[in-house]
Amino acid sequence: DAGVTQSPTHLIKTRGQHVTLRCSPISGHKSVSWYQQVLGQGPQFIFQYYEKEERGRGNFPDRFSARQFPNYSSELNVNALLLGDSALYLCASSLGLLTNEKLFFGSGTQLSVL
Amino acid sequence: SQQGEEDPQALSIQEGENATMNCSYKTSINNLQWYRQNSGRGLVHLILIRSNEREKHSGRLRVTLDTSKKSSSLLITASRAADTASYFCATDENAGNMLTFGGGTRLMVKP
Asked: Average pLDDT, stretch B58-81?
């Protein structure tokens, strides 16, 4: 079975532009989460979706939005990009929302904002 | 904000030696997990310890949890060059499996 897949792997944008990142979870997983990882730091939670509904949101501005589709894939959108949005964006999937469930991560999308 | 602080931030050892890294967190938890990340790419789950457990083993990994001190440690025994990676602890501060990660320990194992 394929793991979590993310696209694109790398992306270069300029300030003020918007970006859409995509994620396909492991087959059978209904939960998708997004994390931002700035160089040298640990991942920070952005969103969690389950059965197409937002179940959690981290401390990120409204420029960040996401959605989950009927096939459980997900998109993360960031508007009005800032230099500080440059980071590795990680998608993770899990079967559900239980606290004892581990997350399966994709390889990430490296976003550079110039 | 990040829940945990990891110590040390960087660790360099020789192959065959043991590596110990520590994690502290701030709020009560149900579970604590450890993840590994190679070269800034995706994270891989290593081990989960529940709040009512004090120690757990998985192969060359040993994890301890002290809820009174809000701290955990990860021990990698007989390290190998392939263990070179960043290691992160993560807690369920936000409920469910919306994880809060620490800042990580960057481990280098020299052959």
From this structure: 97
